[in-house]
Amino acid sequence: MIRSFRSGRVRLRAPSLRAEGALDEIRNMLAAYPGIREIQTNTRIGSLLVSYDPARISEESLHAAVAALKEKFPAPVCKKTGPTLRKAEKRLMLGAALLSLSGAMFDRMPLHKIGGAAFFLLAGRHVFCRRRAF
Hints:
alpha+beta, 4-stranded antiparallel beta sheet
């Protein structure tokens, strides 16, 4: 995903940029475009800073390069959900949180632990499914 786009530089940030093997391939794909001056990477946060010569490469060409990257490195596989399923997931998370809180309030540790574990799993799925590769 393009995070910033200025004349002469563009910053991309995506989870797929954290993988060293994929990062080398992405760097080679971008370096093939004429006018690319320098490519700086940060695997810790999944960031790529591309410096380019605006006189040699157009913004449209860079957008085409990012589109090619999106095709080659698609978003993590996560089943898309409709609005009704999203509402159900939110209600399940709320129910798990309330179960955990009520278990803690009334000194019922098994309920507290089960509700907390369910909330943790549902929240983890929510965060994972919202990530996108590009």
